[in-house]
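User: I'm writing a tutorial on reading structure tokens. Could you give me a worked example: one chain, its sequence, then its tokens, then a sentence or two explaining what the tokens reveal?
Assistant: Sure. Here is the example chain.
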Amino acid sequence: MRVLLVDDEVTLAATLSSGLTGVGFSVEVVHDGGSGLERATAGAFDVVVLDIMLPVLNGYEVCRTLRAREVWTPILMLTAKDGEYDETDAFDLGADDYLRKPFSFEVLVARLRSLVRRGAPERPATLSAGELALDPAQQRVHLRGEEVRLTAREFQVLHHFMRHAGDVLTKTNILENVWDEFYDGDENLVEVYVGYLRRKVGRDYIETIRGSGYRFVSP
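And here are its predicted structure tokens:
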């Protein structure tokens, strides 16, 4: 499993590289955003670990540019505990997961393995159903040609539904794929976000399958 680690904290990067190598990853390290963008675009990596505060190009620009170029390698973003960005911003940028510094090495390994297991299926430029269209690269949703303003988490939930249109998705499945497999809060949080989406895009797109979960349909 090949990991690209982009972090300008040289000591931390060396420590992480050594640790990840020790548990079976092949790691390439670069220390600035420009090099990170170049290597992530050209190299065949299974996952990218990307810090936000980087020289040359910050993580924001690296992630945004990769997604604009339709490079869909899973990205785990590292966010500073008291920094400018938080987990919502990480998802806004097109990241697949995030960790706040400082973090547990064991948690990092588990998150990376989870992302590698999911893989990076080719993502279409636009997902559509009826009068609803979702653009993963631009992080935008339109209904009948008008843009729908969604929060980052609402976008992630809708994206997951539309990628699995027609499938019955349990609350557990949605939590594991939109939040992460380590989420241990109330699974009824999914109901809350389904309610948000129904108010913004219409009730006809998301069916409740009693006793099972939800199914996204084209009305």
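What the tokens reveal: The chain has two domains: 2-118, 127-216. Helices lie at 10-22, 33-42, 59-68, 87-92, 105-118, 152-163, 171-179, 189-201.
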